[in-house]
Amino acid sequence: MRIGFIGSLVPTYRDHLHSLNRSLSGVRRYIDQINGFIAFLGPDADLSAITPQMIVRYRVFLAKRGCSGATIGNALTAIRSFCKWLVVQGKLVDDPTRAVEWPAHEDPIVRALSNEELSLLFRVIAEPEGLSEEEQFYWRRNRLAIYLMLYAGLRISEVSKLLWRDVYLDDNMLVVQRGKGGRRRELPIHAALKEEMKKVALRRPTWPVAGSIEHEPLTPKSMAHIFERWLPKFEVFITAHQLRRTFATQLLRRGATLRDIQLLLGHRSLKTTAAYLGVNPKDLEDGLNLLPASW
User: Fold this and answer.
1) How far is CA 141 from CA 9, 55, 92, 215, 236, in A?
2) pTM of the model
């Protein structure tokens, strides 16, 4: 398969992304998006083919394939990054994406779990008696993964990458080495989460906290089986992201500041955290009730 002239630039662009300390998964996503655009342009295309008109045609192409506004926006963002790099390299005079409009899209609403749903979840994941050694391992692994999302607010990808060398039980702290955007953050360990972690008898530094029985890390896709296969067996239908949203929402309702929640979630800005939490009618009611009856 011919990669063409534009395709020949991709390895150097990949090195550029790595030099920015981007996460490996983030680099892969960008490269996949760029390769998709190059395939659309065709193997004989040169840099003169990267025009606003062609980028708009690609946007229309993705829309006709049924891609969501968010997916199309991600593709355009990767193309913009590539074009800006080409400008810096002196291979393009100007960034052609400046004249391109991004599609409007609404973020899907991820609902935090209610207290009733949380009570059901805890009843379901309570460890039953009579499990074999192997069954006990998987049960405790799944339960621990759920606790890491609910009590530390970790993303499913962060849970899958967490190693014991980044957990300091004596200091009540764990470290997310490369969260979203390659950012590092230190998090306190909640007492309930600490108790779950202490149930793991062998905690060798290079082993994953919630990995396979062979002590290998799980991919986020494999870890998602907890929510796609394991919990549904008990009539519990939730997502990993709902646990993270519940973590943030419960903190807000218990008086945590927006700044505290931002740092715990690993968001770059307060604006992201505010949009992430959204507005709950119950929170509005509680806030309204803070007003005195008279002055």
Assistant:
1) 43, 45, 51, 11, 17
2) 0.66
State whether CATH 2.60.40.1880 applies to domain 115-282. Answer: no
* pLDDT at residue 67 is higher than 50: yes
Domain with CATH 1.10.150.130 in the chain: 4-99
Q: What are the angstrom distances between the C-alpha of 257 and each of 11, 190, 197, 253, 263?
A: 43, 17, 27, 10, 10
C-alpha to C-alpha distances, 27 to 14, 83, 228, 272, nearest whole angstrom? 7, 15, 27, 22
pLDDT tens per residue across span 97-109: 998 999 876 556 6
DSSP-based three-state secondary structure for 132: coil
CATH class, 4-99 region: mainly alpha
Q: Are 103 and 72 in contact (CB under 8 A)?
A: yes
